[in-house]
Specification:
The complex is a heterodimer of chains A (about 280) and B (about 325). Chain A has a domain at about 1-95 and about 210-270: Rossmann fold. Chain A is built from nine helices and ten strands. Chain A has helices at about 60-65, 90-95, 115-125, 130-145, 160-170, 190-205, 220-225, 240-245, 250-270; strands at about 10-25, 30-45, 45-50, 75-80, 80, 100, 180, 210-215, 225-230, 235-240. Chain B is mainly α and about 325 residues long. Chain B folds into two domains: about 1-85, no CATH class; about 95-315, MetI-like (MetI-like fold), CATH 1.10.3720. Helix content of chain B is about 75%, strand content about 0%. Residues about 320-325 of chain B have low confidence and may be disordered. Classes of the chains: A alpha/beta (about 280), B mainly alpha (about 325). The interface of A and B includes residues 92, 108, 109, 118 and 156 of A.
Chain lengths: ~280, ~325
């Protein structure tokens, strides 16, 4: 652990992050360089969106930041602590500060659990007492716009959008400061997507949450992010404010992403008959 | 409860279906028990016709089936022409040996496959995982009969276990403990063959089920919060991965029973296998039908046990909770 002298108001600062995977065949191993030296920072209470096509390395960055993967090189600073350098036991107090919300609402909940059990699980892992657990579950479920009356039902009885709300409620139970949203709005219908986006913006305003938003959808990113970083081949190829990136993209990868998003919107409009 | 009753009714209908098919197929099969007698000039055609009539084989198929069902309801399952005795007691005396072999193999198969599958999934890509992948692929690819013959030859060549039979010739002279050891020694070879062949499939299924759960985001979330290994295993991984494994349990019993028929013949184990094989060669058709019915019954029993285990382990099956999607 050492002190990083740069930007004072950044909540999260990632520097030189690298991650590679060794994929084993039976006889020969293959090394995949998923992330090759990524640098960015997110100011407290703001949103940085990592965008890029599949395989560009954005989810790997998210998993490293959420402490689900150990990076091979680089630093992840929260305040003046490089959490990437901490041992497993030293990491424990930091784990609650960073929570992740995944894309797949179906696999994001243990199918054997009731909604209450699923939301309560982080507190159980942390060894919190029952009264605190019950109270926290109720307040978190209320906060994401769900009724506490139905939380004894199996998670499998909730719709995709409701499960995503439950996943957010579960993340909120440990009072995180940073939420890593890994394609958390992908796969939902447009109406539900809009509702969840609004919910996340409201929660950000209420709790000064910092978001690392992983997405391949420029429309979602344009609505939620303050800063956009475009990834390709494991590197950030362009980064700037949302307005700047949306109106005057410079890198060909950014231009290509925006162009394909517009084409998708045009196709959608042609199918639904809506005007753009 | 209604779930179990439904399964039970389905099982009875299935048994009825199996019995109808058995009768149809044995009717289509060429030859009969009395064919060898026809070439014997000392036995007159009238005698053979009398014997056929005595066993009801001169009756139409539907009548024979009706008589067999009546006999089955009296727990006789027809009459063996070769052994001159009701089929059910004859089969039961052999089925006990088949059950001993199959249940021992089943306990060992699952006792070995579950921890190995779990370990392979937890250490995915590691040396043990690769070794299991290679060995199980080999065991699945090589026919069971080849594995059985190779192990039989090895056991006989190096005198590793007794070969043939269920007990030694001096079994009656042995003390209780020595008798137990003698049966275990004779049981070893057929059990090893069955366990090797069946484990290869089950280890891969368990590994795949566990890997699927380990990749689920709720497991990653729990890991991210520093969940202990024990809690992760017993609260998240095992309960969820158990469903496909338990379903497989019923099928594995069926696999072991059909596999045990072959192994019993090769190893000379006095179970249903050699009895049904002899009955097939001699066209002792009620013994063949009874043998198949016993196997079907064991398979249904295994599936029923699996259903009960699923009901206990997964509340959604009891409550019929639906996926809202």
């Amino acid at each position: 652990m050492s002190r990083e002298p740069e930007s004072q108001n950044a909540f999260l600062r990632v520097s030189g992050l690298a991650k590679r995977y060794v994929r084993g065949g039976l006889w020969r191993e293959r090394v995949v360089e998923a992330v090759r030296g990524v640098d960015f920072e997110i100011a407290a209470g703001r949103t940085l969106a990592l965008v890029g096509e599949s395989g560009s390395g954005k989810s790997t960055v998210a998993r490293c930041v959420a402490l689900l993967e150990k990076s091979d090189a680089g630093q992840i600073w929260i305040g003046d602590t490089d959490i990437a350098s901490l041992s497993l036991s030293a990491l424990l107090p930091w784990r609650t500060q960073v929570q992740m919300v995944f894309q797949d609402a179906v696999t994001s909940m243990n199918p054997r659990f009731t909604a209450a059990e699923a939301v309560e699980e982080p507190l159980l892992i942390m060894g919190k007492d029952e009264a605190l657990r019950r109270e926290t579950v109720r307040s978190s479920v209320n906060e994401v716009g769900l009724s506490v009356d139905g939380i004894e039902r199996s998670v499998m009885q909730f719709s995709g959008g409701q499960r995503q709300r439950l996943a957010i409620a579960r993340a909120l139970t440990v009072r995180p400061k940073l939420l890593v949203l890994d394609e958390a709005l992908t796969g939902l219908d447009l109406s539900t997507q809009g509702q969840i986006a609004n919910l996340l913006l409201d929660l950000q305003a209420a709790h000064s949450l910092t978001y690392l938003l992983i997405s391949h959808d420029p429309a979602v990113v344009g609505r939620m992010a303050d800063v956009i970083a475009v990834m390709a081949g494991g590197r950030i190829v362009e980064m700037g404010s949302t307005a700047e990136m949306m109106t005057a993209p410079k890198h060909e990868e950014t231009i290509r992403l925006l162009r394909s998003a517009r084409a998708a919107q045009t196709n959608l409009a042609a199918i639904t008959g809506a005007s753009l | 409860m209604s779930y179990l009753v439904r399964r039970l009714v389905r099982g009875i209908l299935l048994l009825a279906g199996v019995s109808v098919l058995c009768f149809l197929f044995t009717e289509m099969a060429p030859g009969s028990f009395f064919d060898e007698m026809r070439v014997n000039p000392q036995i007159s055609p009238e005698t053979i016709a009398g014997l056929r009539a005595q066993h009801g084989l001169d009756q139409p198929l539907v009548v024979r089936y009706g008589r067999w069902v009546k006999s089955a309801l009296h727990a006789d399952l027809g009459y063996s022409i070769a052994y001159n005795t009701p089929v059910a007691p004859l089969l039961w005396s052999r089925a006990k040996n088949t059950l001993l072999l199959t249940l021992t193999a089943m306990v060992l198969t699952w006792g070995i496959s579950l921890p190995l599958g779990l370990w392979a999934a937890a250490k995915r890509g590691g040396v043990l995982d690769r070794a299991i992948t290679v060995i199980s692929s080999l065991l699945i690819a090589v026919p069971e009969i080849v594995i059985a013959l190779a192990l039989l030859a090895t056991a006989a060549r190096w005198r590793l276990t007794p070969v043939g039979g269920m007990v030694s010739s001096n079994f009656e002279e042995l003390s209780g403990w020595e008798q137990f050891r003698d049966v275990v020694a004779h049981l070893t070879l057929p059990v090893v063959i069955l366990v090797l062949c069946e484990s290869a499939v089950i280890v891969r299924h368990v590994r795949a089920s566990v890997l699927e759960v380990l990749g689920a985001s709720y497991v990653q979330t729990a890991r991210g919060l520093g969940i202990s290994r024990g809690r992760l295993l017993f609260r998240h991984v095992l309960p969820v991965a158990a469903n496909p494994a338990i379903s497989l349990f019923g099928f594995s019993l069926a696999g072991l029973i059909s596999g045990s028929m072959l192994v019993e013949v090769i190893c000379g184990w006095p179970g249903l296998g050699p009895l049904v094989l002899d009955a097939t060669f001699s066209r002792d058709l009620y013994v063949v039908i009874g043998g198949i019915m016993f196997s079907a019954l064991f398979m249904l029993g295994g599936n029923m046990v699996a259903d009960i285990m699923l009901m206990v382990s997964d509340p959604r099956i009891r409550t019929g909770a639906a996926d809202a999607g």
